Amino acid sequence: MIYMDNAATTICKPDVVKRAVLEALDTFGNAGRGTSEAALHAARGIYAAREELARFFHAEQASCIAFTANSTESLNIALKGLFCPGDHVITTVMEHNSVLRPLYECEENGVELTILGCDEKGNISPAEMENAVRENTRAIVCTHASNLTGNMIDIEAVGKIARKNGILLVVDASQSAGVYPIDVQKTGISVLCFTGHKSLMGPQGTGGMYVKPGLHIRPLLSGGSGVDTYNRHHPAQMPTALEAGTLNGHGIAGLAAAVAWIEEKGIDALRERELALMRQFYEGVVRIPEVKVYGDFTVRKRCPIVSLNIGEYDSSEVSDELNMTYGIVTRPGAHCAPLMHRALGTVEQGAVRFSFSHYNTEEEVAFAVNAVKELAEQGE
Amino acid sequence: MRKKEMKLVITFHTTADAMAMEKACQEHGAPGRLIPVPRSISAGCGMAWCAPLSERERLLGVMKERGIEEEDLHECLV
Predict the structure, then answer these.
(1) B17 CB near a chain A CB, below 8 Å?
(2) Rounded CA gap, B10 and B15, in Å?
(3) pLDDT, tens digit, 9 for 90 and up, residues A37-79
(4) pLDDT of res. A227
């Protein structure tokens, strides 16, 4: 199998991640439930992970990091817990349904929504974002990188707009966390939502969110907290406020090991490798007649994703052929990004997404280019 | 049951704060250990830092330096 669906989930996890999960499975009690050595071992492991993630994203302190199951959960907590009827929120067509659907629910409950469009390459203009700010604007909610095109939003520029206008900035870093360094304080991010199983190289079922100190988010869940049993309300202090119930301690141990591994290898070196593979693939397919590539490849700063179509072929058919004939794993269809597909005119056809990891090789990429060429020739 | 002694017991708002306390004390070589919150302080659950009474100022210094906020400070038989 040649795995090129790393934007969906990375499949080659570092050995240290596997070892950390196994060790946790053998030794973790329930963190925060008593002070037995087993419970404390789990609590220490989770706290170390909090510190690791706080360092990684340049958070003020470990308690700014709450663990969740994935980006979707983090985004639901943030979006449903921050906004009130009458608030105005700015977002973009680049968003994944994990941003759009909670925002649509907010809209049904009286939140006003502005969705900014993109240019023909799929880019958003931060200047237009600033023009959309109104008196009742509470936040800008945007992705750092499109899961369909790999295009990025200049969050540093957006952060300046948010700061200047005194509004919140909620960033979906599902595709970018682990690819690009993110400094939440310098950028002016109020809430950063991330998943563990993509470029952070951790296990599925891990994720989390950074919340700026002092920012109150109404919790989505309440329940067991390990503290204050007889209080009718869930504790308001971070991170407990957003972590009702037993955490995925085993997975979190793996996530911490994964982030430490990225730091050891160097995030820049890992990304440059991925971008080189992406570029090799892009240059190989872009001039093939019948192949249409989506996204902006004139810029260097992007995520290692190449989405394409061959002629009028259904993307599912192409992806299946790549899988069955060549053993190449890609993702077809609509990529949970309905507005981006609409903007690119690919609602019916979908798109075949190739997404690269530092684990891929030049040989695999050359093989994939050749496969696309052969399928395009067969279609002529 | 072993004989109880008067101890300093520091409670926290979250488990994360308790863990931060344990780490800070280990790094500073400050004494104490995490215990379940005694019933005489608060019914329910949670963990607290338990240390000799004489270590009060030293522990408060560690907490101040690390920005660890206590829920409360108690002196009780543990």
Answers:
(1) yes
(2) 12
(3) 999 999 999 999 999 999 999 999 999 999 999 999 999 999 9
(4) 86
- As a whole number of angstroms, the distance between CA A229 and CA B60 comes to 26
Measured between CB atoms, does A244 come within 8 Å of chain B?
no
Residues in Cβ contact with A25 at an 8 Å cutoff, skipping those fewer than 6 apart: A250
Interface test with B, best of A30, A33, A35, A51 (most B CBs within 10 A): A35
A152: which DSSP letter?
B
Average pLDDT, chain A: 97
A56 and A134: one domain?
yes
B43 touches chain A (CB under 8 A): yes
If residue A370 lies in a helix (H) or strand (E), which one and from where to where?
Answer: helix A362-379
Architecture of domain B6-77: 2-Layer Sandwich (3.30)
Domain ranges of chain B: 6-77
**Rounded alpha-carbon distances, angstroms, from residue A340 to A116, A332, A345, A351:** 11, 15, 8, 11
Instruction: Decide: A170 and A36 in contact? Cβ < 8 Å.
Output: no
Please state the ipTM of this predicted complex: 0.88
